[in-house]
């Protein structure tokens, strides 16, 4: 009897170990294909900058759905339109959350914004506020006078330069978008000192997204940011930004804000009115308001300016396209001296130029990361709960099954085509799709179209010092948003 018990005591644990090993092996084989991993760091060594390019290269070998181990973070990389559709449409709710990120937690009021906050009731209500009250069609149209004024200020700055003096167009475009977002969000009454402070704070905020943080991949290494000074810099920025917003909000309170139904209200006014609204389904705290305003600046400034800059660079590299789009705009405008937003609807080729720029240069090439809220299956591959999912919009825009000659700048591919960037055509998703699609698409594109149309209509452009178009530096700067490393210097001649 004792021998039988001894055998059972030996065999049963052994069988359990074998079953567990088999179960783990089966689970492992169900994960998507993966490059070879190193101990501890996993696949981090294979993410050479810029990551969207290195991930695209890996996908050519391992397929459009890959599993990477990024330190302690399990990540899935999606690089094709059909798989993007499975993630952001078929399984949209499963992947609707966001992972916790150091920068978002420290700078966006513990991720109480819309872009970075995890999926849940707060996110649903905050997004509803953005869609229904802040960025609806009527509100976007109400900001038209601000956009037109800021574009006219930019045109005046260009006009003051001689036809021999190079213009730093990158800086002008950055100022245009920052000033527009400032007036839309905070109103027209900023004093010069506060306005200068705002510009500095926006520039510093963009810089924080140019580097990754070890803590995001190794939570146990959170102390590194304390040693290298990153925590100190982020904490100082946050104190300065929070103090700046306090001053702006207090000024609005003193001026007794009106109703959110006021079509001339700025974003702060609308949010403060909603906060006081007893019938609102969401009780907005002051930190909620500040986080949403921070979103407006982080998303609105970089996205629009980067798109405009890349568009002008591609046009400088393609004289044929430059002439064609200028001819279209000038033919429509004839003797009108200034383009307003009602004229843009007729400019099909201009819209195609902007779409083609977005295809080749999505401002967020990897979009913002998603996170699975429960286990899911994609194309037979098991995706565990709390897996980070990154969609490579840059790679999808170059997918050879969707695009002919994908590396060429050919706006004609969008003429007489229904393909759009609103999230329904998965071969072209520069703003994402599904529940997490960017809520500010209309706001961003309206400003970009107006600015680009005026620049192209009112000036002819050339490169300085007999520089050739092929000499333009196309190197991408690091960061989650991808601007060019070099500023665009051009010479403008009034048309």
From TrEMBL:
<dbReference type="GO" id="GO:0020037">
    <property type="term" value="F:heme binding"/>
</dbReference>
<dbReference type="Pfam" id="PF00067">
    <property type="entry name" value="p450"/>
</dbReference>
<keyword id="KW-0479">Metal-binding</keyword>
<dbReference type="InterPro" id="IPR036396">
    <property type="entry name" value="Cyt_P450_sf"/>
</dbReference>
<feature type="binding site" description="axial binding residue">
    <location>
        <position position="438"/>
    </location>
    <ligand>
        <name>heme</name>
    </ligand>
</feature>
<dbReference type="InterPro" id="IPR001128">
    <property type="entry name" value="Cyt_P450"/>
</dbReference>
<feature type="signal peptide">
    <location>
        <begin position="1"/>
        <end position="26"/>
    </location>
</feature>
<keyword id="KW-0732">Signal</keyword>
<protein>
    <submittedName>
        <fullName>Cytochrome P450 71A1</fullName>
    </submittedName>
</protein>
<keyword id="KW-0408">Iron</keyword>
<dbReference type="GO" id="GO:0005506">
    <property type="term" value="F:iron ion binding"/>
</dbReference>
<dbReference type="GO" id="GO:0016705">
    <property type="term" value="F:oxidoreductase activity, acting on paired donors, with incorporation or reduction of molecular oxygen"/>
</dbReference>
<keyword id="KW-0560">Oxidoreductase</keyword>
<dbReference type="InterPro" id="IPR002401">
    <property type="entry name" value="Cyt_P450_E_grp-I"/>
</dbReference>
<dbReference type="InterPro" id="IPR017972">
    <property type="entry name" value="Cyt_P450_CS"/>
</dbReference>
<comment type="similarity">
    <text>Belongs to the cytochrome P450 family.</text>
</comment>
<keyword id="KW-0349">Heme</keyword>
<keyword id="KW-0503">Monooxygenase</keyword>
<dbReference type="GO" id="GO:0004497">
    <property type="term" value="F:monooxygenase activity"/>
</dbReference>
């Amino acid at each position: 009897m004792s021998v039988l018990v001894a055998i059972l005591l030996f065999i049963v644990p052994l069988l359990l170990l074998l079953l567990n090993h088999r179960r783990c092996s089966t689970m492992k084989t169900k994960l998507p294909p993966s490059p070879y991993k190193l101990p501890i760091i996993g696949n981090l060594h294979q993410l050479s900058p810029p990551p969207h390019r290195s991930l695209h290269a890996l996908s050519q070998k391992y397929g459009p759905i890959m599993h990477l181990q990024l330190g302690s973070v399990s990540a899935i990389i999606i690089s094709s339109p059909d798989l993007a559709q499975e993630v952001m449409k078929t399984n949209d709710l499963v992947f609707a959350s966001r992972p916790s990120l150091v920068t978002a937690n420290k700078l966006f009021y513990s991720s109480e914004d819309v872009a970075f906050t995890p999926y849940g009731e707060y996110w649903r209500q905050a997004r509803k506020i953005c869609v229904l009250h802040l960025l609806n069609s009527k509100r976007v149209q109400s900001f038209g006078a601000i956009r037109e004024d800021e574009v006219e200020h930019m045109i005046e700055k260009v006009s003051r330069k001689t036809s021999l003096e190079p213009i730093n167009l990158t800086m002008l475009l950055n100022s245009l978008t920052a000033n527009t977002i400032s007036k839309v969000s905070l109103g027209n009454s900023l004093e010069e000192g506060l306005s200068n402070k705002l510009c500095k704070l926006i520039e510093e905020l963009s810089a924080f997204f140019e580097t990754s943080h070890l803590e995001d991949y190794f939570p146990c290494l959170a102390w590194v940011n304390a040693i290298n000074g990153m925590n100190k810099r982020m904490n100082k920025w946050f104190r300065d930004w929070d103090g700046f917003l306090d001053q702006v909000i207090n000024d609005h309170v003193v001026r007794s804000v009106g109703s959110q139904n006021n079509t001339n209200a700025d974003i702060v006014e609308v949010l403060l009115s909603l906060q006081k609204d007893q019938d609102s389904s969401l009780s907005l705290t002051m930190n909620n308001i500040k986080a949403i305003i921070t979103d407006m600046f982080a998303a609105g400034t970089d996205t629009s300016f980067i798109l405009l800059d890349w568009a002008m660079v591609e046009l400088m590299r393609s004289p044929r396209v430059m002439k064609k789009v200028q001819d279209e705009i000038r033919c429509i405008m004839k003797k009108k001296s200034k383009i307003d937003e009602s004229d843009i609807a007729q400019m099909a080729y201009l819209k195609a130029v902007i779409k083609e720029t977005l295809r080749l240069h999505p401002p967020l090439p990897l979009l913002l990361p998603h996170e699975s809220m429960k286990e899911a299956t994609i194309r037979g591959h098991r995706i565990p709960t709390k897996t980070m999912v990154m969609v490579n919009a840059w790679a999808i825009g170059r997918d050879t099954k969707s695009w002919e000659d994908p590396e060429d700048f050919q706006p004609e591919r969008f003429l007489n085509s229904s393909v759009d960037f609103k999230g329904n055509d998965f071969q072209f998703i520069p703003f994402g799709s599904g529940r997490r699609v960017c809520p500010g698409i209309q706001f961003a594109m309206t400003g970009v179209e107006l600015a680009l149309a005026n620049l192209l209509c009112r000036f002819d452009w050339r490169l300085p010092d007999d520089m050739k178009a092929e000499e333009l530096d196309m190197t991408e700067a690091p960061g989650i948003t991808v601007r060019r490393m070099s500023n665009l210097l051009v010479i403008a001649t009034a048309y």
